[in-house]
Amino acid sequence: MSEEVFVSPKKKGKIAVFLSGRGSNFMAIHDAILAGKINAEIALVFSDKKDAPGLRIAEERNLETLFLDPKAYPSREAHEKAVTQEIRKRDVDLVVLAGYMRILSPSFCNELKYCMMNIHPALLPSFPGLHVQKKALEWGVKYSGATVHFVTVDVDMGPIILQAVVPVLQDDSEETLSERILKEEHKIYPESVRLYFEGKLEVRGRRVFIG
Ligand code: GAR
Fold it and tell me: Which tens digit of pLDDT belongs to each residue from 81-137?
């Protein structure tokens, strides 16, 4: 069987950012767009949390925002269907999960294959899931970091776009390690989005080649 190949588009892209909280990765990407480093615009900032600070920041930055309450829908699929309609309406090319803390259904992931990225605060495939800085400390790893990857049906296991490594120090707490990792997240997430719309990401099977 021949291997599936995907090449990212070289174009001015439209992005939808999905977030559930603080929004610092969203800000890093938006700042890079404003600085002319990424050939894209943010068409929508979407949240599943009404009070997400990131949503307020997006409003202050005059970006279009949308909150759709998952509790208002009979199922996860119904909520996702409404979200899908909103992103289709805006001709979104890439969904950027930036601290979006909701597990997405296989059909949503398949529909947006290679059109959805996520950032995770660990060196995947180590420490998927939640509370990963705590898990890294408890395991005793000497290095941790951040991973940007395409989203696939297997949670946190999609093809890896970029990773950054940080040391784990002996006196680290969850907070100090998280802070060190977050600084790297703010570099590799905008860079991944930049590469995407430069047409420089080629996915072959599990591997992402950077042109
Ligand atoms: C980031 O550290 C991101 O890696 C993590 O949530 C934080 C969001 O921060 N995402 C996950 O854990 C996804 N599984 P932010 O709202 O300031 O960007």
Answer: 999 999 999 999 999 999 999 999 999 999 999 999 999 999 999 999 999 999 999
110 C-alpha to center of ligand 1: Å?
22
**Does the CB atom of residue 104 touch ligand 1 within 6 A?**
no
Statement to judge: residues 91 and 140 lie in one domain = no
Q: Which residue has the tokens 């040391």?
A: 167
**Cα separation, 180 vs 121, whole angstroms:** 10
Token pair belonging to 122: 């660990």
Same domain, 162 and 127: yes
Cβ 188 under 6 angstroms from ligand 1: no
Distance between Cα 98 and ligand 1 center (Å): 6
Q: What is the CATH number of the domain that holds 179?
A: 3.40.50.170
Amino acid at 123: L
Kindly report whether the global pTM for this prediction surpasses the value 0.70: yes
